[in-house]
Structures are given as C-alpha cells and as structure tokens.
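Protocol step 4 of 5: obtain the predicted structure for the target chain.
Materials: sequence only (see below). No template structures provided, no constraints applied. The aim of this step is simply to have a reference model before the mutagenesis design in step 5. Sequence pasted as it appears in the construct record:
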Amino acid sequence: MLRLFWLLARSIAGLWPRLRRLPRKAAMALGAPGADQHARPDRLWRAMLVVVPLALLAALVMPQVTLVMSPSIEAFAVRKSPGPIARGDYVMFTLHHPIAGPKPVSVTKHALCLPGDRLTMFETPSPLVSNSWDGHYYCNGTLLGVSLPQAHNGLKLTHMTWSGIIPAGMAYVGSPHPRGFDSRYFGLLPIASLVRMERIL
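Step 4 output (structure tokens):
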C-alpha cells in the first residue's frame, strides 16, 4: 500500500511542472507574442475565421464521398451522381455473400451490360483447378471477364451460367480485374438496387 501511495505521489509531482507551464502555453495559443506577455485574442479570431469555414465545408462534403477499397476498380473515391445508369457508369450496391463476410458490404463496380444487351457465357476447363470450369462472359461480343474456380483464400466459387438478352430492370456489373468479384459469380442485379456514382479521385 505504501509503495502504491509513493508511486502516486511521484506521478503527481511529475505533473506539477507541466501544470505550471500550462497558462503560458495557453497565452501563446491565444496569440501572445511571447510566453510572458498577454494573450492577443484578435489573432485567434482571425485564425478561426479561416479554420471554421473550412471545417464546416469538410463536414458537409466528406459524408458524400465514399472511399473505394477494392483494387478491382480504378477509382479511389466516388460520390453519388443521380441520373439514369448508362453502360460503363460506376454503380454502388450492397453485397450479401459469404466471400464478403458475415455482414453486408457496400461495393462499387461498373455497369457493363444493360437491358436489351446480349450476354453470352460459355465454359472451358479451368487450368487452375482440376475437374472445374471457368465461365467466359461477353456483352454484345465484347469480353467482360472470366470466372475463377476458387477465391484467393481457397473458397470454392460458383459462377453464373445464364446467357441471353438482359431483361428489363436488370444489369451485369463488374470490372476488368481478373480477380474481381462481380456478376460473374452472383449474377445479374436489379437496377433499382444500384446507385449511380461518379469518380472524384
């Protein structure tokens, strides 16, 4: 008990020099030209006139900006951009899938194949895993991507096997990244579930 009291007393004694210097530091922070001179609040107010508007602007802008954490998309930051979704647009949606983890996550991809487009898929034996198949996906004859039989963590992946004319209200979303996790695996998405985005960085 005495040892604990002694350690506490030493800690308090060590704080005393810092507490004595606190008024001087506060005066300088308030604009005093020196530690022993009076504060000059006018300098502080001038600084506040610059800092506060910038802080308010950041508070308004930052909530509208979404950072893109996936390496499969070339954008680093996007924001909502209302309007009809066109081919190639950035879109954001909520993904529910075991590969994404136990909780749904927000994902940003490109809208690559839209209603009325022809999506063609054919399979070839996978060179990566024996007795498995890769899916090749084309939109109006343009290659969108090739599926893989398993994820980087070894999780087995099943790919979409549907081909045909994209129905109204649906879209194929993806990216050019060979390991991108997109409609190759989870299929077409309702356009109503997509939010149009624009790249800002």
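Step 4 remarks: The longest strand covers residues 105-113. The chain has two domains: 16-63, 68-199.
Proceed to step 5.
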